[in-house]
Amino acid sequence: MLRIAAPLLLALIGFATQAGELDGHYHVVLDGQPSELILRQHGAAVEGEYVESKHLRLTVKGRYDGKLLRAEISDPRSGLLLANMNATYANAMLNTGIAARDPRNGQVLERQALFQRIAAAAQTPPVATPGRQDPALVGTWVHEKIIDSGGASFASLTTLLTLQLNADGSVTQWTRSVGGGSDWSYDSPGEVQYSGHWRSQDGLLLVRLAGAADYQPAAYYRFSDQALVTESNTGKMIWQRRR
After folding, report:
1. CA separation, residue 189 to residues 155, 159, 178, 182 (Å)
2. pLDDT of the chain, 243 residues: tens digit per residue
3. Rounded to whole angstroms, how far apart are CA atoms 103 and 74?
4. CA distances (Å), 199 to each of 91, 132, 141, 193, 208, in order?
5. What percent of the residues of the chain are helix, what percent strand, and what percent coil, each to the nearest 5?
6. What is the Cα–Cα distance from 233 to 70, expressed in whole angstroms?
7. Which pTM value belongs to this model?
C-alpha cells in the first residue's frame, strides 16, 4: 500500500547481516526546517547526530535489533536527554517517530517523519527541492489484492487501492474491499486514506499531505510495460492504469 509515514514495516533480516545497514545521511524537511540524521552502526549499537538547519547539532545513541531502532537524542555538551526516537528502516528510508519534552512546561511534542537516505555525493536532498510533475504519472492507478480461502467453505476478499494523481498537482488515495462466500457477501463503501499534493523528482514520488507544510518522500517509482511499480517502506506494489 502506498502510504505516507506508515507506522510499522518489516525488515526480517538476520542479526549477522545488520552491521552497517543503517550507515548514512538521511534527510527530511520537518516543520519547514531541513533536518538530517547521520548514523553509524556497529553491530546492534547505533550512534550519530541529529542536525537541524545546519545550526542545531545533537547526539544520537541507540540500539537496532533488525526491526526497530530505539535511540535517545541528547545535548552533546550537557548530556541532557532531549528526545526519544523510534524508527523502522526499509528501502533507504527511516520511518521515524520523535517525542521531545519541553523543559519549560513538561509538554511532550511528537513528530512523525520519513527520512530518506542520500548518497554521499549528493549536494542537496530531494525533499528540499520537490521538483516537477512527471506527466507519465498523471491519471488513476489501481492496485488489486485478492485473498482466497481454501476448503469446503470457499471465500474471497478483494481489496482495491485507487491512487488518483491529477495534473493540477492534487492527489487522493482511497481503498475499497469486496468479498463473499457461499452464504455471505461484503462490499465496503470505500474510504479515503489521504489527500494532498504531489511532485516527482528522479524517480521519487513526493507527497504533501493536506494541512502539512512540506513534501515528503512517498515511494520510488518506475514503469514496467503499462504498469506503475512503486517501492516504499511498505514494500513493492504494482499498479494498473484505470481507463
Report:
1. 20, 12, 9, 22
2. 344 333 323 222 233 334 478 999 988 877 767 888 999 999 999 999 999 876 788 999 999 998 899 999 998 988 889 899 999 988 788 888 898 877 667 778 888 888 888 765 444 444 444 458 899 999 999 998 887 666 556 677 788 889 999 999 999 988 888 776 666 565 666 788 888 999 998 888 988 888 777 888 888 899 998 899 998 766 788 999 986
3. 13
4. 19, 5, 16, 18, 8
5. 5, 60, 35
6. 18
7. 0.50
